[in-house]
Specification:
alpha/beta; Rossmann fold; five-stranded parallel beta sheet; about 50% helix
Length: about 230
């Protein structure tokens, strides 16, 4: 069995983790796993079922009804996420669902269930996986760990422009405030808090383009000899 290479990208909301991970995985021919989408799908389920998000017992009791499957389009590698057989790739991207995901992700039993799924996926193929606790909890033995960050203002502006392109009305100051609140909640939760793994490399994307961030990560892979290893394997 060929060796799988695991790249873990952690960081706060809006740092560009998903964008970078998608681009990088496509260039490397790795499978991209968006763990945040898994939490968002779970959050969407809770919102639809009108589960009281602040009631941990109620949320945990509802987890048995959550069935999540990740699929990748063979043509361009685009990830699709299915919730109980329904493609919810677009529905999970609303602000309401994002906030729900942030709340339920603080519950240990919710994280335990999704972490087990994520670890199984990473044991089968070379992956680029992004989230909040990939390097610290999900893939502590990952061959490369990146902690991708950016200032709250830079992250809020990216989100603001993204929403504006979609025709969604938004206030930059409100988005920035939500970002800061989410950072605080994610960093202070008892279960797998957002933090940089000791062996993760800090990369600030505030003033970098997508291409520049990807180039830096590729440089780190080359330094570790991982790209040469993958090429020899091919």
């Amino acid at each position: 069995m060929s060796k799988t290479i695991r790249i873990a990208i952690d960081g706060p909301a809006g740092a560009g983790k998903s964008t970078i991970a998608k681009y990088l995985s496509k260039k490397l021919g790795f499978v991209y796993i968006d763990t945040g989408a898994m939490y968002r799908a779970t959050g969407l389920f809770m919102v639809r079922k009108k589960i009281a998000l602040e009631n941990e017992n109620e949320v945990v009791a509802s987890m048995d009804g959550v069935g999540i499957v990740l699929r990748h389009d063979g043509a361009d590698g685009t990830q699709q996420i299915f919730l109980n057989g329904e493609d919810v790739s677009k529905q999970i991207r609303t602000e309401e669902v994002g906030k729900a995901a942030s709340v339920i992700s603080a519950y240990p039993q919710v994280r335990a269930k999704l972490t087990a799924q994520q670890q199984k996926l990473a044991s089968e193929e070379s992956v680029v996986m992004d989230g909040r606790d990939i390097g610290t909890v999900v893939l502590p033995e990952a061959e490369l760990k990146i902690f991708l960050t950016a200032s709250a203002r830079a992250r809020a502006r990216r989100r603001f422009l993204e929403l504006r392109e979609k025709g969604v009305a938004a206030e930059l100051s409100e988005i920035e405030r939500d970002m800061e609140e989410r950072d605080k909640r994610d960093s202070e939760r008892s279960a797998a808090p957002l933090k940089q793994a000791e062996d993760a490399i800090l990369l600030d994307s505030s003033d970098l383009t997508i291409d520049e961030v990807v180039e830096r990560i590729e440089g780190l892979l080359q330094e570790k000899g991982l790209l040469a290893e993958k090429a020899a394997e091919a």
